[in-house]
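Batch manifest line 675
LIGAND: NAP
JOB: complex structure
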Amino acid sequence: MLEPHSYACGQWIGPGQDAARLKNPVTGLEMARAGGATLDFQAMLDWGRNTGGPALRAMTFHDRARMLKALATHIDSRKEELYALNPLTGATRKDGWIDIDGGIGTMFVFASKGRREMPDGHVYLDGEVEQLSRKGTFLGQHIAVPLQGVAVHINAFNFPVWGMLEKLAPALLAGVPCIVKPATQTSFLTEACVRIMMDSGLLPEGALQLIVGRTGDLLSRLGPQDVVSFTGSARTALALRSMPNILANSVRFVAEQDSLNASVLGPDAAPDTPEFDLFVKEAVTEMTTKAGQKCTAIRRMIVPDTLVSPVLDALTARLEKTTIGNPETEGVRMGALVSADQKSDVLAQAARIGNDAQRVFGDPDHFAVQGADPAQGFLPPMLYHCNDPAAARAVHEVEAFGPVSTLMPYTTIAQAAELANLGQGSLVASLITNDPEVARAITLESAAWHGRIYINNRTSQAESTGHGSPLPHMTHGGPGRAGGGEELGGIRGVLHYMQRTAVQGSPEMLSAITRQWIPGAPERKGPGHPFQRSFNEIEIGETIHTGSRVVTLEDIEHFAEFTGDTFYAHMDEDAAKANPFFPGRVAHGYLLLSFAAGLFVQPDPGPVLANTGLNALSFQKPVSPGDSIRVRLTAKRKTRRTDEYGEVRWNATLYNQHDEQVAEYELLTMVAYSR
Ligand code: NAP
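JOB STATUS: finished
ARTIFACT:
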């Protein structure tokens, strides 16, 4: 008998007297006792806010990203323990792969994005410096800092591992401690993963707590710095997000709820095209994976009216091959629903869909099940056909959270988009078409109603990730019915756990706060040429001013001939003069860059290992033959990269003989640490 424990204030606490008794959906036998423990929710919040939060915030984004990478590596090394429990959720090993390996993979992506896209510091910069004054003495910069509360993560039963890790990774990267509350029915799998994470010793105390069972009065104790991230039904989301203290304290409430996702087959996708086969394949995969218990599963298949019949035949032929049964039996493709209750719920919702549509495949009273009793948590894939989808309601409103989908016809592209939008807001809509204009037309009509648009065709099919897969790089969430929330999406997902603050002040103030030199902030003079200083020695603001160099007509002609860039603005006085930007022949911008490098580079071997790029280059004033240029080079930002070297970004500004700025850019270098 499994007894998943809660983890509160550093203690594991087993099920209490009123624990729920969970049955194995495959055998119907009791398998676990979960919940019912008396937990001190205020103490849990205090532990997170006062112990976990400060410890996490003391780390930099890169420290936390490294911690995530180590955690993901550790879970990966013990994932077979999770796969051993996976069949008790009714899921096959392949279903478990989405949950377990998918969750670990998501954590790895956040670990890597954290180091590549966030600074090795405590303040995240959102956008560029805003010029708020003419002379540049008063500027603005948006920053983001971690919230000082706790993130409460409430998850649905269908992805006990991924559901936790996809929320945990961005929250921990942001620096916010988490209290995870999985759905009770599959809490034993979440608990096993939490135990693995706690065993690793990688998380600071208070960074992660777990509630198995009910949340008691936890949510009514949340305050202005806390966040709730919820995945589950629209009903529960509404009840929780409208709690008085959640509203009064403006507690952030991110909701991912149910969704009537659609897949549209393009009018070009006749039965002999690769797109036709692709549509059928994806539709069947979405119906049967996780026995259809996926928030992103295709609930509505919208196909040209002329193709209904061939699509139906092709779907039927594939669905007939779906082997249903004990998820541990060899060759079984679709396992059980998570519980007997869930099965009854799906049947009840399917009956409502049946008022609008006719069932054309799958009889829940007669179907074959391998290695188990069909009376347990099993259902066949059930396909409905709705002839008049514009008039129907249930097919667009009722989510049967199981292997249930409805096929419906459209006549025009505009109608296909309208039908897709009748779901009142979804997580994902897919378009299977090889016609870019169809993709554009439907996307423009539908994007406002769907959090993600997934387009697939013969070009992308081999590498595409699937209609139903939320990816850590892309946002997951949708408007309206889907909850109005957003998760993942790379660093966007991290920002849900941070406060964006507009900071205004002088360049010196902003530089001190952001640890990034901003033009106008004080310059420092180093003891020597900065290219002879190691990564650890270089100070932000360290500056050199070079000598100047005259740019001659011979230089311009030599450069033009040497590179082949004989654009008229450099070579033809009359044509250049006729151009509104130039007073006559001017130097090539790239010539100026090359001369600038010649002016600021220190040639001897030293700690600077490579010039890896150049950002935000702008040529601001033309340089004519006879003008001279000089450079101001300032260390702008430093980021550790490996144990051997780090990246130094420099501000390079070019001036002419009148001290007017003629060009500016950010130069990227890799610089070795001193030994
Ligand atoms: P649910 O009943 O709303 O439960 C979701 C979570 O909320 C569970 O952890 C549940 O815990 C908890 N919960 C329920 N009442 C609560 C309360 N009063 N206070 C605090 N927590 C409470 O949804 P479900 O039936 O488990 O999940 C299926 C639904 O989730 C489907 O509609 C599906 O579309 C949706 N879903 C959406 C996404 C998405 O990303 N958009 C992903 C997966 C699923 P207990 O288990 O202890 O009741």
